Amino acid sequence: MTAPMNVDPAELEKFSALAHHWWDPESEFKPLHQMNPLRLGWIDQIAGLKDKKIVDIGCGGGILADAMARSGAAEVLGVDLAKKSLQVAQLHALEAGTPHIAYREISAEALAAEQPAAFDIVTCMEMLEHVPDPASVVHACANLVKPGGWVFFSTLNRNLKSFGLAIVAAEYILKMLPTGTHEYQKFLRPSELTRFCREAGLDVKASSGLQYNPLTGRYWLSQDCSVNYLLAAQRPVV
């Protein structure tokens, strides 16, 4: 029997309905556009993007994947299960002339079975909180990366502060995101994500918080991982 797909159809529908807005920097995806340079710089500082073979899991409309390709990566593959988002990503790459980039409609688990240990860098940003089984995605990312390679995650912490800021403030008060974008019970504490990494054979090497000031509209990296945070893990060289 075929294993059930690790996907929530409601989540796919949610992002498919917004697909045509992915590359509008003033749309619902404005926060991702604003965060992207910070995430890109953090990844590059730790792992170095130049000449690397990279896969972006849950790439959506390709905001991060496109930026990594433009930063000198040898090859970037963006994968997602939202067909409309992938079509937007492919169209943008064609119109912008983005080099060395491709997109596929495939799950992380299926790609890991097809191309084990094939990538220098694996990124999985703002995706784990949208799937039924995040540990399965973490395991797939660990299987996709080469020994010595890096895996990067970003997600939302689960506590009262993150509920207040990421859901109540961002979705209901400031209207930065559409209502219902996030489900609190799917948020992951850093300790939980670290455990998933350890169980998948990855060594967590670094973390960073991502802060936001609603008055100035500015994002910055910090040591405060209480709401948005990033995690960098490495597959050991055996």
Automatic annotation (TrEMBL):
Keywords: Methyltransferase, S-adenosyl-L-methionine, Transferase, Ubiquinone biosynthesis
GO biological process entries: methylation
InterPro entries, per the entry: SAM-dependent_MTases_sf (IPR029063), UbiG_MeTrfase (IPR010233)
Top enzyme class: transferase
EC number: 2.1.1.222, 2.1.1.64
Any one GO molecular-function label of the UniProt entry: 3-demethylubiquinol 3-O-methyltransferase activity
Binding residues for S-adenosyl-L-methionine: 39, 58, 80, 125
S-adenosyl-L-methionine is among the record's keywords: yes
Gene3D superfamilies: Vaccinia Virus protein VP39
Domain of life assignment: Bacteria
Catalysed reaction equations from the record: a 3-demethylubiquinol + S-adenosyl-L-methionine = a ubiquinol + S-adenosyl-L-homocysteine + H(+); a 3-(all-trans-polyprenyl)benzene-1,2-diol + S-adenosyl-L-methionine = a 2-methoxy-6-(all-trans-polyprenyl)phenol + S-adenosyl-L-homocysteine + H(+)
Entries under PANTHER family matching the protein: METHYLTRANSFERASE (PTHR43464), UBIQUINONE BIOSYNTHESIS O-METHYLTRANSFERASE, MITOCHONDRIAL (PTHR43464:SF19)
Family in the record: Belongs to the methyltransferase superfamily. UbiG/COQ3 family.
Stated role: O-methyltransferase that catalyzes the 2 O-methylation steps in the ubiquinone biosynthetic pathway.
Protein name as annotated: Ubiquinone biosynthesis O-methyltransferase
Organism: Comamonas denitrificans
Protein encoded by which gene: ubiG
